[in-house]
Amino acid sequence: MNGEFIAFLILSFTAILGGILMLNLKKVVHMLLSVVLTFVSLAGIYVLLSAEFVAVVQILIYSGAVTIILAFGIMLTKHTARDERTSNRLRAALVGVGVLVFFFTVYGAIDNLFFGPGAEGLHVENTQQIGERIFAHYVIPFELVSIVLLVALMGAIVLARKEGEENK
Amino acid sequence: MTTIPLQAYLILALILFCIGLFGALTKRNTIIVLICIELMLNAVNLNLVAFSQLGNNPGITGQVFSLFTITIAAAEVAVGMAILIAWYRHKNGVNVDEMDGLKD
Fold this sequence. Notes:
- The complex is a heterodimer.
- Chain A folds into two domains: 1-79, NADH-ubiquinone/plastoquinone oxidoreductase chain 6, subunit NuoJ (Four Helix Bundle (Hemerythrin (Met), subunit A)); 127-168.
- In chain A, 74% of the residues lie in helices and 0% in strands.
- Chain A has six helices and no strands.
- The radius of gyration of chain A is 21 Å and the shape is globular.
- By secondary structure, chain B is an all-alpha fold.
- Chain B has one domain (6-91): Helix Hairpins.
- Chain B contains three helices and no strands.
- Chain B starts with 5 loop residues before the first helix and ends in a 13-residue tail after the last helix.
- At the A-B interface, helix 1, helix 2, helix 3, helix 4 and helix 5 of A face helix 1, helix 2 and helix 3 of B.
- Chain A: InterPro entries: NADH_UbQ/plastoQ_OxRdtase_su6, Nuo/plastoQ_OxRdtase_6_NuoJ.
- Chain A: This is NADH-quinone oxidoreductase subunit J.
């Protein structure tokens, strides 16, 4: 029972708590905020796994950018949006049974997994290691990702543009 | 290095993935479905980072892959939100079960 284990327990508990709250809350904005709790706890878990750079990126992208864009989506569609409980309870029960079957199948597969003591030194100058790996081994995927981002940006603008502006 | 076994991280990721899957299949609001998909992608990211530290062939590559996944997920959210706003302008609703325009 050392400090690392206690930190893992607290962080995983808050992550799961955020997910459960997201399933049970009524207002859409509250659901979004509870998911932010999950994202931040996952960033803490990345720090435990000696991935500091990924943790900072997680906080910046997920709990920053993605949350803001979803909040704008909520604001632009329905202010008082409520997710009324599905009328179809039978379907929810069937989906729950399916998800439980999936859970226990995968749990049986990962129950006895052990690969070794793990890597040493991933936390030493983590950002430098990631930068060297990206720009030495993964340059072409990195450039392709920039093209994907450009295409997504243009696609989002074209899709969300008001119709009839071509006439002006 | 670390005293927490690999299974703990994998089971946490599995629980988060199951929560996201259940939400994505049962919720009616499209924004909530998008959030649930983000939760599932986050669980996958946790798996990648856990294997990069404790996997069979540990190294920095898992963290690089999770960075690529985060980028693609951000692009996906932007396009999904644009589609949602265009849909809302057409039909004035955000519920998934009303999106059956291809049925007729």
